[in-house]
Amino acid sequence: AAARTPLMAGNWKMNLDHHQATHLVQKLAWTLKDAKHDYAAVEVAVMVPFTDLRSVQTLVDADKLELGYGAQDVSAHTDGAYTGEISPVMLAKLGCRYVVVGHSERRQYHGEDDALVAAKARSAFGQGIVPIVCVGEGLDIRKEGRQVEYTLAQVEGSLAGLTAEQAAQVVVAYEPVWAIGTGEVATPEDAQEVCEAIRGKLREMFTPEIADAVRVLYGGSVKSGNIAAIMAKPDVDGALVGGASLDAEEFAKIVRYQS
Ligand code: PEP
């Protein structure tokens, strides 16, 4: 894990009004500045609603913040007759470093499958935006003990068609669906089991060097109280944080692995 810079990404989902959003990003930046956070040691990014991106860009640019930001979804197309979609070209112009693709909420409520997730990941890379590709099993699969095979099949489908250069930069987020927003956190051992298997799959799909370079995040009810034990696992390179990223002080603690 030595060569991989951990990434702590906050996923705000469909929360906060515009004033709260701009306040949160500033408060997070100030809190991390007060703590003398070293962004080169642990990268930090926030995944915000589309309607907040322009303002977040302005704040980040004005203060030359090292905080990264991005969107929570992207179109598989670059332009055209796709009413309601947001293209990667638009996101790139807004300075997005990352975009979440294939979040379980989009898979579940919007019928996104692995092929579409892979198309979105390629679409993001086409404009220089790094996709954070989400995978993870539901409770039924976990109860059957099939979490590894299920998640690896998602990895295979959701990274299909990436070039070697893209694969080396992609971020994979392992988010067991039963642990998202439920307060039910996977044990560090559960997280390690699947994250390690994901890295094995990347070795098989691409090369050992690529597998070693890819950051595999854990997501699911991460809080300041459980982050240190999760980050101690060798194949976990950061976290995708939902609820706890809406509080600047709590998220700053998570970024710094502090309880
Ligand atoms: C998420 O939405 O990616 C997530 C992990 O949510 P939470 O931290 O709230 O479980």
UniProtKB/TrEMBL annotation:
The active site is at 103 (electrophile), 175 (proton acceptor). It catalyses: D-glyceraldehyde 3-phosphate = dihydroxyacetone phosphate. It is found in: Cytoplasm. Its EC number is 5.3.1.1. It is an enzyme of class 5 (isomerase). One of its GO terms (biological process) is glycerol catabolic process. The keyword Cytoplasm applies. Substrate binds at residues 11-13, 181, 221, 242-243. GO terms for cellular component: cytosol. InterPro entries: Aldolase_TIM, TIM_sf, TrioseP_Isoase_bac/euk, Triosephosphate_isomerase, Triosephosphate_isomerase_AS. PROSITE patterns: TIM_1, TIM_2. Pathway: Carbohydrate biosynthesis; gluconeogenesis; Carbohydrate degradation; glycolysis; D-glyceraldehyde 3-phosphate from glycerone phosphate: step 1/1. Keywords: Cytoplasm, Gluconeogenesis, Glycolysis, Isomerase. GO terms for molecular function: triose-phosphate isomerase activity. SUPFAM superfamilies: Triosephosphate isomerase (TIM) (SSF51351). Homodimer. Belongs to the triosephosphate isomerase family. Involved in the gluconeogenesis. Catalyzes stereospecifically the conversion of dihydroxyacetone phosphate (DHAP) to D-glyceraldehyde-3-phosphate (G3P). This is Triosephosphate isomerase. It comes from Actinotalea fermentans. The gene is tpiA.
